[in-house]
Sequence to fold (397 residues):
Amino acid sequence: MSQSGPRPGRWRLVVVGGGSAAAIQVRRGDVPPQEVLVVAERLGTGMAFLGRSTLQSYAGELLLSGRSEELRAMMRAGDLRPSASEYDAYVQESLMRSGASVTLARVMDIQKNAQGFVLSLRTPGGVRRQVYADGVVLATGSTPRRPPEDLRAAGALTYDVVHRELAAGSSRRWEGMSVVIAGAGNSAMQTASLMAPDARDVTILANRYVGMYPAESDDRFAWRAPSQLAYELVVKSSRECGRQPWNVPCVRHLVHESLEADGDRIRWRYRETSNLGVLGSHSTAGRCRHAQARRVGGEDADGLWEETRPRDSVVVVWATGCTPVYPPGELMGSLEREPDGTVRRDAHGRTDVPGLHVTGACAGQRSVNETAPALTRAPAAPAQGREPELAVERATV
Fold:
């Protein structure tokens, strides 16, 4: 097929991704949806693995357009927040009804030439095809951050695995085990409360004390409603752990300095001076029967404590946030990255490749109500001679 001039399969804009950022780009962006092709392996939010769990944000903070009734139609009457599954359905419906065309496929490569972009796709059935675009927006979301190599070798899980196994009704591999969760945010707190009923004990190892929003922090990404349960368990644990009858799962929260797998042991260290706040004061050595710690480094170690557990008695869960995901290929690999893994871009989501933009997690936007469509600067008129893309049948989503 010739690369010059208008041709079948050419789009004014291709949005790569099928989540909330893609829906916001399509519905709020400056390119009419009828001139947009959405390419995604799956339609729906990356939070779908949370299942029936209630999301942190209120419904009004999660809107993909100005029409609140679209989300409300997916929610149970009287609820202030949607569940993850309700929101997933909302994102799917928002894209299906947007007017954009949708193709379920994996992007295998993106190339740039003088006429625009060439995207190589592979469908779920293994069919390979190419589409052409004047502009591309990456709205590919993020994936849970992986644990360090030594902890992966020790069998560490990412927090989404816990949610997926619970949703599938799998046996609790952490039953009767000590659970160690690395993370400071809502993911760590919620995972702790999910695992606590079956675990021997749970220790959350954070890099800082975050606090409850808005009582202790004005950061709206701090702990919110579902995290309150873990917060309460930490305080109750120090008061009730070891009492008869013992009715409360033991959960601790420590600001730690290190966590590592060392031979047949899992080891973590923390300073007493870093844990004098609301939760740390309930979790240091001597506060509950599970805090079996020893002081290390001598008197000049500023209250440095170490705890170890046999490797075969511990399940480590990594809940330290997410990293953006991008399609493979040489062009993607050449893009400059920021320290947080996002692509270097300007305030409008423009990368150093003209016509290639990012939005959502790829642009460092941390929530739906912080997500803004990329300024695509697309041509004023659509390319002619485009072959219409058939909308995805609802049953295939």
User: Anything to note?
Assistant: The longest helix spans residues 84-96. The chain has eight helices and 17 strands. Residues 1-7, 379-397 have pLDDT under 50 and may be disordered.
